Amino acid sequence: MGAPGSGKSTFCDLVMRVSTRPWVRICQDTIGNGKAGTKNQCLTGAASALKEGKSVFIDRCNLDREQRADFVKLVGPQVEKHAVVLDLPAKLCISRSVKRTGHEGNLQGGKAAAVVNRMLQKKELPKLNEGYARITVCQDEKDVQAAINTYTALGPSDKLPPGFFGQKNSDAKVQLGIMKFLKKKDPPGCSDTVSNVSPENIQSHATKERDSNQVVESHEEPKMASAGSNISLENIPTLAFPSISTADFHFNLDKASDIIVEKVEEYVNKLGNARLVLVDLSQNSKILSLVKAKAAEKNIDSKKFLTFAGNITKLYSEGGLHCTAIANATNWRLKPGGGGVNAAIFSAAGPALETATKATAGSLSPGKAIVVPLPSSSPLFSREGVTHVIHVLGPNMNPQRPNHLNNDYVKGCQILREAYSALFDGFASIVRTQGEPSKDNFEKELKREPQPEQGSTNGDQKAKREAAPEVDMNKKYKSFVKELGPNVGSSGDGNTGEQTRKAWGSWAQALYDTAMHPERHKNIIIEKSDDVVVLNDLYPKAQKHLLVLARVEGLDRLADVQKEHLTLLKTMHGVGLKWAEMFLSENNSLIFRLGYHSVPSMRQLHLHVISQDFDSKHLKNKKHWNSFNSPFFRDSVDVIDEVSQNGRATLKDENFLSMELRCHRCRSAHPNIPRLKAHISSCQASFPAFLLQNGRLVLLEGKDADH
DNA sequence: GTTCTAGAAC
DNA sequence: GTTCTAGAAC
């Protein structure tokens, strides 16, 4: 399965060239005497090849379930069905498709892009319950090569293990480094096969689209919105737990990982929609990779069980992962200290946890766990949204410590199983009694704290608002580890405020100087008050693009913003809004968005007020586009919400800037800036749902960005 | 932030 | 040959 240009034919060819298995490739592009044929021809061809005892590749896009269902149904269970999904970046597929139809000139190329876009919008990843014994999802060239190797090595009577392989993050927000893919040489000999990959799809769709514009204008419901935007947020009870007994208690990692996976598998379904997260501080954690591999083998739902490298006491503030409960691998006295996770959690939770723990129990025996509700005075509660700590004691295999099991792994494994059962039972009891402890609850809890600066007028918005940060493990984790350094551990607080900051270059000082010395810049300033200065962006990226500068020394960027700046943020928003409305009164077709760059290039906090036409000669590169049209752009309304609730705004990774180019309305992908600009100049699709909410878009009253 | 430009992509 | 991107310099 895969879009045109994803490399299906190449895949088959490379396998068949070396494989000792009798393969037959059924390709709709060539099945009609070397020309494109029909689906029925493919079905018949496949059936007869199977009857002859051959193995068959169905070389066909098969992106939606309906298309592939007939092939799965073709033969009974005696024939094993596999899916290999070439889920490569849209841009790469487009680029290859355009290349192979290029002889017809640009128009053809443009249609290829349109077709790939359209097809990808219909993409449904296959599921095992469609009838596949094995599914392999390839998301980059490395995955593809691995799958090629796997199938090449498959002898005539060999079998592959069943299950789902490959990451399922179909809604990955960042697809980086397209150029890296393109720079790679195609495998030798593929150039002659590439030319006949699925032209039928392109031709037939291209014919249908002959009268339409060169690029897809999706006037349909923008399905891609859910894939590329921030709409879906995890809002579910989550337990973060460290690996029990494998650190100080020296429990064998391989055995421990087996038990973790076994117990997770047992509980993951009992827990309903709740989620389990195995956490380890180390970036190269052996236990994490063992567990990850074994969980994948067992096909455990990756939405319900994840592994996460990071500091368990800062999962929300540093990792963007909100966990309702965290497990503490403690000692039998339930006392702080001793190093490791126990020391870290007691230290981060403050004396409140010690008191609450004492009130619950005096000691703990191996294999047991106790649930301790965390008082709201604990920083773990207020900062991280953790409502419960579950202390758990595992078996001790460390001969240097008292009461060790003398290498008795029969007993050790039994106790470790008990420990995880007790832990997950404890979590289950929280889930049951709390109903749905969610981010919303977390936010409600936070709101209980006195917030003098906060008006009560927008409470309604808050309830609907999408809770703060998305979970984006890889990105988050990378920057997170960079900040913490590899060995920052149990010491607790104090080292997280300072991030690695680039120094400002001389060219980055212009806005700072304007804000601090407005009198020197009278010619460009269009409004000035004690709090802010407003000016037109020197290189506007849209018809209307202005900046509202904060006039506070030391407030260089969003990362510097704290709760004390809430009033200022609201002032800036108000000023920006006023200007947007002024522009709207002159041109009622404009639509505005107000927000900040997560990592600005210019010093001095500045709010962008920018019209959504992006019609500008200054918009020249990917960074320009993505800085306004990826999660890197933080809407002012969200920043205000986050700062008022958490005291800081979430910043998104700079990697978003190299994300593939997608239309901000219909979310279609485009191979380069000129093509993107040609598309957006006429795309009238409705904006993604995310932008239609909470006043993120500013437009004329009565006008509807939805139509 | 932009400009410049080599070299890749087309 | 022309278009486009990415990285360095500023």
Automatic annotation (TrEMBL):
- Compositional bias, Basic and acidic residues, is annotated for 206-219, 437-451, 461-471
UniProt keyword terms in alphabetical order: DNA-binding, Metal-binding, Nucleus, Zinc, Zinc-finger
Q: Which InterPro entries match?
A: Histidine_triad_CS, HIT-like, HIT-like_sf, Macro_dom, Macro_dom-like, P-loop_NTPase, Znf-C2HE
**Compositional bias ranges of the Polar residues kind:** 192-205
Matching entries from SMART domains are given as: A1pp (SM00506)
Q: Could you provide one GO biological process annotation from this protein's UniProt record?
A: single strand break repair
Every Macro domain range = 292-547
User: Which Pfam families does UniProt cross-reference here?
Assistant: AAA_33, DcpS_C, Macro, zf-C2HE
Q: Which GO terms describe its cellular component?
A: nucleus
| HIT domain span | 511-619
Q: Which PROSITE patterns match?
A: HIT_1, HIT_2, MACRO
Stretch list, region Disordered: 189-219, 435-471
Kindly list the places in or outside the cell where this protein is found, as annotated in its UniProt entry. Answer: Nucleus
* One Gene Ontology term of the molecular function aspect: single-stranded DNA binding
Q: What is this protein called?
A: Transcription factor bHLH140 isoform X2
